[in-house]
Records
---
Amino acid sequence: MPRYYVIRGEKVALSLISREDLSLFVSWLNDPEVNIYLSMRRLITPEGEEEWYESVRRDPSKRQFSIVALPEEEVIGVVGLDRIDPYDGSAMFGIFLGRKEYWGKGYGTEATILMLDYAFNILGLHHVWLIVKDFNERAIRCYKKAGFKEVGRLRKAVLQPDGRHDVIIMDVLAREFNEAHESAFKKIQEKA
Ligand SMILES: CC(C)(COP(=O)(O)OP(=O)(O)OC[C@H]1O[C@@H](n2cnc3c(N)ncnc32)[C@H](O)[C@@H]1OP(=O)(O)O)[C@@H](O)C(=O)NCCC(=O)NCCS
């Protein structure tokens, strides 16, 4: 089935999640090398993932997309927003690349920037925030490149095999994002 891209960059496009992607997501989320970085540490079942998929389709407080690597058009991860609050104009950001061979090559940063562009320039949000474990240096670097700043810490809030770690809270405002990055959506609107 051809994929419909919501937004297309140079290295990645974001597409609507299709049901066929779910079995991949289950295997990635249960991979200990991926799971260690996530806040969701429980075992993910196919049934649980199907429930999540249905909630994404129905719940307007969630927007989740498959990350598709270009030009090979391979699904490599998931990026999205949760807890979208239209009154406050705020949402929580999340991302993971399940295909580890794609880590550290710029795919995550581009997917993050595209998602923030969607959040600020399509949904019209004002504020996007996230949480990240302090040892996840790759993710922290990726988030900073996209425009997030550290705004606080939950001290020793997570237990890892090597001991307790802080959870870093980061956020970015629409104005800050638009000053630092060109919006793909604004470019399309200007052309129309
Ligand atoms: C976090 C994630 C989305 C980042 O995407 P990515 O494509 O790997 O990241 P990018 O290549 O765009 O950027 C990573 C940056 O960190 C740097 N980096 C890579 N490995 C690193 C490491 N071990 N320590 C410190 N920095 C590292 C890269 O050099 C790059 O910075 P640079 O462009 O200045 O050189 C991806 O690695 C991932 O999904 N990881 C597993 C799940 C996860 O951590 N999700 C986030 C939970 S909060």
---
Amino acid sequence: MSEAPEVKPAESTTPTLAPRGLEGVAVAETRIGDVRGEEGFYHYRGYDATELARHCSFEQVWHLLLIGELPNARELRWLQDQAVAGRALPGGVSTALDDIARLPGYTALGALRTAVSLSAAALNLQPTLDLTPDQVRADALRMVALTPVLLMRLHRVHQGLAPIDPDPSLGYAAAYLQMLTGERPGPEAARALEQYMILTMDHGFNSSTFTARVITSTGSDMGSALTGAIGALAGPLHGGAPSRALDMLDAIGTPERAEEHLRDEVKGGQRLMGFGHRVYKTDDPRSVLLHEVARGLGGPQVEFAEHVEATALRVLSELKPGRRLYTNVEFYSGVVMNTVGLSRDMFTPTFACSRTVGWTSAVAEQASNNRLIRPSAIYVGPPAPRPLPEGYAYA
Ligand SMILES: CC(C)(COP(=O)(O)OP(=O)(O)OC[C@H]1O[C@@H](n2cnc3c(N)ncnc32)[C@H](O)[C@@H]1OP(=O)(O)O)[C@@H](O)C(=O)NCCC(=O)NCCS
């Protein structure tokens, strides 16, 4: 007797509903990096990101993320040359940039988003679908190099100051500060900013990185992906609020007031800025290193911040027991950026500049093995098809 043929179950046409916010859902495979929240660990291509920030330059880690490996001396030289050449403003954008800087509703991040879009259009960046991997990487290098130049020009023109060209002898982080003030920064300030920037280049499959990948999955160009990513970063739930921890320090004012202020906040149902994290349920590794960096810089604000941190952790463990609330990246980021001379409105744009390395690396990875990202939704409205209301007509 012959066996009955195997019957394949019919493929379901009803999509399954993913958890809200896609929490716990993996939507891609990546070789760029990952976050392990329970361990308090994150990495770039397998290397502990905090170790990279301790021992490497911005350009070395940029090469690692975009190209895939830490560079040897020749490869580093190549990237440095590309990075300096890529700082040149595209032809035809300078007047428009100055107009953007003088818009009545100016915000630094909104202006940067617009300037990135403008520059990508001026450079005529082509759909990634039509480019080779080398061409996608060339666009990535160009946009990473250009973004801080756009930001600093907008910032200075907005303040009524003349823009300052980047010094080609300076690396990414030092040139960043030099374009801000017109002076070569001290090595401590430049290195502190460089370490902050390395720490924030990438952080797993975060919302703005996902946004950049969705846009790239349509075959669109690098400029569109970056413009969308900056838009996603602008939200307060992502990168739009890194100055809030510093605002909290201001509101506390003096060490003696910390205990009472923090207790009142938590008892009143407020969240302490710079504490707690969706993924990290132990020390945020970025906060640990940024604390060290802030200490290295010194200054009165650091001691005060340390006092507030210790008080906040004590208050949180007492009033919110078992919630595993620790210091997050924002707490000492604000202190570091403030100490190196960045104003609060430049915190999120500075984050955007360093994250451009992660975004462009994600774009390159997506483009090299692309499939259109096109999920479904479960329709929960009135049963369809609905008849039009009787007598309803074109008006
Ligand atoms: C980052 C953050 C949004 C993560 O939140 P989450 O994982 O969704 O945590 P939940 O909202 O589930 O909160 C769990 C509990 O901890 C409390 N909690 C979380 N963060 C807190 C904070 N910073 N201060 C006081 N309580 C906090 C919540 O009130 C909640 O308490 P409950 O159980 O009594 O209701 C949250 O910790 C927060 O708002 N922090 C302050 C803002 C901040 O620093 N943002 C930068 C993040 S990098």
